[in-house]
Write a structure and sequence with these properties.
244 residues; mainly alpha; 65% helix
Length: 244
């Protein structure tokens, strides 16, 4: 028998409702569901209220023993980034479009033209949609890949993996390094390729690269690598200029 079928089901939760809760946890956390249920779902029609799982049922399914919440948490974080970025960019385009209409004819600059033209393209070719999707995928891929390489390093350190370490010493040396989880961070940056090449992608890529250099600099500074080395102070000015 499948071990998953032997798992004790929460009391009062049917299979259909349990699948509904397991699907909802990829979009909302238990705390967010409690607020959504109290302020929106319970104020809807009777059929919606009847189909809405209770908070106790939602918590019982989400907090089952041996259930990993890492993938749903990554999905929720990516969804928040997507919705927030998409709403902000579309709101900005609307504001710029209305300001453009108030100007005199022939005085519209190129930047305002680009902002108004984004509303005329189809949804799946919209720059705002692709940019929001690339950022959300960047967050999700970073979380998943970081944990994957972290667990891979833990498994390679086990005594059972000694044969693999002896057969593939170079590969084992790479993944046994303390910096091996950062490989996932580098691969997650490929999500920016979803957005077409342009000024916005170049800006985000440059900002991400500079922030990565800043984190490395802060780490080395905390470990005392730049002690008694006054020439490194010039790097602080470099970070300050990029922050401004």
């Amino acid at each position: 028998m499948d071990p998953a079928s032997k798992r004790a089901k929460p009391p009062g939760v049917s299979n259909a409702r349990r699948l509904l809760i397991l699907s909802l946890r990829y979009a909302v956390s238990p705390k967010e569901y409690a607020v959504l249920r109290r302020r929106v779902l319970l104020k809807g029609p009777g059929s919606l209220r009847a189909a809405t799982p209770s908070k106790a049922q939602f918590d019982a399914v989400c907090f089952e023993p041996e259930r990993d919440d890492h993938l749903p948490a990554a999905s929720r974080a990516g969804l928040r980034i997507f919705l927030l970025t998409y709403i902000v960019l579309n709101s900005w385009d609307i504001v710029v479009g209305r300001l453009t209409k108030g100007r005199r004819k022939g005085v519209v600059d190129d930047w305002a033209k680009k902002a108004t033209e984004t509303t005329r393209v189809t949804l799946f070719k919209s720059p705002n949609l692709l940019f929001s999707l690339s950022l959300s995928m960047l967050v999700v891929a970073h979380r998943l890949l970081y944990k994957f390489f972290f667990r891979l390093r833990e498994n390679l350190l086990l005594p059972q993996a000694r044969t693999f370490r002896l057969r593939h010493p170079k590969v084992a040396r790479l993944f046994l390094s303390r910096l091996s989880p950062s490989i996932g961070s580098a691969l997650a940056g490929l999500a920016l390729l979803i957005y077409p090449a342009g000024d916005r992608r170049t800006t985000v890529s440059a900002w991400t690269f500079v922030k990565a250099l800043e984190f490395c600099y802060n780490r080395l500074e905390d470990e005392g690598w730049f002690r008694n080395k006054p020439w490194v102070i010039s790097l602080d000015y470099f970070w300050y200029v990029w922050r401004r």
